[in-house]
Amino acid sequence: MKEKMANKQFDERVDRTGTNSVKWDYREEIFGRSDVLPMWVADSDWPTSRSVIDAIIERAEHGVFGYTKPGEETDELVVNWWEKRYDWEVDPSWIVYTNGVVPTLSMVIDSFARPGEGVVLQPPVYYPFFTSVERGGSRVLNNELKLENGKYKMDYENLRELCGQNDGSIPSSPPPAMMVICNPHNPVGRVWRKEELELLADICLEKDVLMVSDDIHAEFIYEGHSYSPLASLSDEIAHNSITLTSPSKAFNTAGLPASVAIIPDETVRNRFEVARNKVLKKPSVFGLEALKAAYRDGEKWLGEQLAYLQENMEFSYSFVKEQIPLVKPIKPEGTTLLWLDCRPLGLTKGELEDLVVNEARVGLDFGHWFGPGGDGFVRLNYACPRETLEEGLERISRAVISLT
Ligand SMILES: Cc1ncc(COP(=O)(O)O)c(C=O)c1O
Which residues line ligand 1 (CB under 6 A)? Predict the structure, then answer.
């Protein structure tokens, strides 16, 4: 009952138009019409926690916004977050601050993979991973996830092949420079189990492939699932890893970029820092305040939000299963994203886009944006008030019915 009361705050619909919101104010540019209900980009439609808002107001009132840098207090908050939530003991010296996970990932790829070298991705996956690899001139090596009985799995056999077999034969190309994973995985919603990560890490360690784990969705884990940071699995794995994260998904502060790279290995970290100092900024004054307040005081709010999201997830999953049986939902274990298999509708790429945008008038991410294995799917972000979610799902349902 208490939880239900607390969750009322997430029922409120906030008008985000006119705030330069990518999700709401760029609908015409992205979907060609401004009347779609936007359920695409992974930010929520909720105000962040009161603690974050108050911290920003207080800092704004100070009025002096000169050069700023995170200090020991910030390190302590980051260390505590990982320790108490994920049972991972992070040494403060491992932490490097940046201003966004995607720019950090691009920088890591540029500095640890030479042009022409391979970077393994596991599509369908968050599309900026592809641009991050390609822009710097390295090569995407796809280790496509396998969908088996409604559940996505990693393809270890294919990965072994990409990394070069151990059968004594001369490999046709050198092993990849690195592998980028996403945990929990956007868009398919898997929270990788320890054993799955260990198997993956064994292959990468054997072939000296650096592992980068984008864990920005780690705070969204549903009942019955448990998130393990890759680097927490063993010292050896930790020394072959870079973990990237930010409170910006959990606290809806993507407009206040502040992110964290956790790099246990000193040599890797030094190389990272040299590159970071050349091309990236540290968090801004307000990004830093948001990060500190989130990690210091945000847990209660986060728990309330997660309870609401769990209900939204169950609701949207059941709605699609029952009301739109031709579309097959993949049940998320984490993230705020529902991955919908629309292949049974038998539509071409253009027809599916037309159905979603012009018939349903909903803005979704299209599966082909996410690389191999994405065709015929769409991604719906359910981090919004229930009423908005219901409206979006009803619109999709009506459009699909109109096909028959
Ligand atoms: C897996 C993943 N990584 C990174 C980001 C964006 O990170 P940032 O805004 O810090 O660049 C997103 C946003 O949706 C995401 O889903």
Answer: 42, 100-102, 126, 182, 186, 214, 216, 246, 248, 254, 257, 259
**Domain regions of the chain by residue span:** 2-49+299-401, 54-297
**Coil, helix or strand at residue 98:** strand
CA 181 – ligand 1 centroid, Å: 13
pLDDT of residue 5: 54
Instruction: Please give the distance of CA 322 from its chain centroid, rounded to a whole number.
Output: 28
Q: Which segments of the chain have a pLDDT < 70?
A: 1-6, 165-172
Distance 246 CA to ligand 1 centre (A): 9
Q: Which pLDDT value is given to residue 167?
A: 60
Q: Which atom of ligand 1 is nearest to the CA of 41?
A: 14
**Atom from ligand 1 closest to the CA of residue 126:** 1
Read off the amino acid at residue 337.
L
pLDDT of residue 2: 47
**Residue type at position 61:** E
Structure tokens at 348: 């071409």
Distance (Å, whole) CA 223 – CA 334: 9
CATH of domain 54-297: 3.40.640.10
**Cβ–Cβ contacts within 10 Å for residue 348, how many?**
10
Contacts of 151 (CB under 8 A, 6+ apart): 190, 330
pLDDT the model gives residue 404: 81
pLDDT in tens, 328-344: 999 999 999 999 999 99
**Full-prediction pTM beyond 0.90?**
yes
Q: Which residue of 22, 131, 182, 186 sits with most ligand 1 atoms within 8 Å of its CB, as the best mutation to test the pocket?
A: 186
CATH superfamily of 2-49+299-401: Aspartate Aminotransferase, domain 1 (3.90.1150.10)
Ligand 1, atom nearest to 102 Cα: 11
